[in-house]
Amino acid sequence: MTARRSLAQDLDEWERQIHAWTWPYTARQMQAACDEVRTWAVDQSWDLDEEFELERDVQWWAFEREG
After folding, report:
1. Residue 67 in this model has a pLDDT that exceeds 80
2. Phi then psi for 15, rounded to 5 degrees?
3. Per-residue pLDDT at 60
4. Residue 48 to residue 37: CA distance in whole angstroms
5. What is the rounded (10 degree) CA torsion for 9, 10, 15, 18?
6. How far is CA 55 from its chain centroid?
7. What is the rounded CA–CA span in Å between residue 21 and residue 19?
8. What are phi and psi of 53, to 5 degrees?
9. Residue range 13-65, pLDDT digits in tens
10. Ranges of each domain in the chain
11. Per-position DSSP letters for 18-67, written without gaps between them
């Protein structure tokens, strides 16, 4: 499937910690990390709102239930 994303969207989701991989970190840690990414992106002249198309694979798993 194709998804359109921007760095700004990703940073927003990371800061709101909606992805399980962010849960081990405190809100303060996630904010600091996102701030560093924003600073780096601006230094590189990246437009945080520019969208990119990403190709993603979706996997479906099926299990037989016994009993």
Report:
1. no
2. -65, -35
3. 87
4. 10
5. 100
6. 14
7. 5
8. -90, 130
9. 999 999 999 999 999 999 999 999 999 999 999 999 999 999 988 888 888 88
10. 2-55
11. -SGGGTTS-HHHHHHHHHHHHHHHHHTT--TT-EEEEE--------PPP-
**Scanning the structure block, which residue is given the tokens 């299990």?**
63
Place of tokens 């002249």: 45
For 1, the 3-state DSSP assignment is coil
The reported pLDDT for the residue numbered 52 is 94
Q: For residue 54, what are its two tokens?
A: 């990403």
Q: Are 14 and 33 in contact (CB under 8 A)?
A: yes
User: Is the Cβ–Cβ distance between 67 and 27 less than 8 Å?
Assistant: no
pLDDT at 40: 97
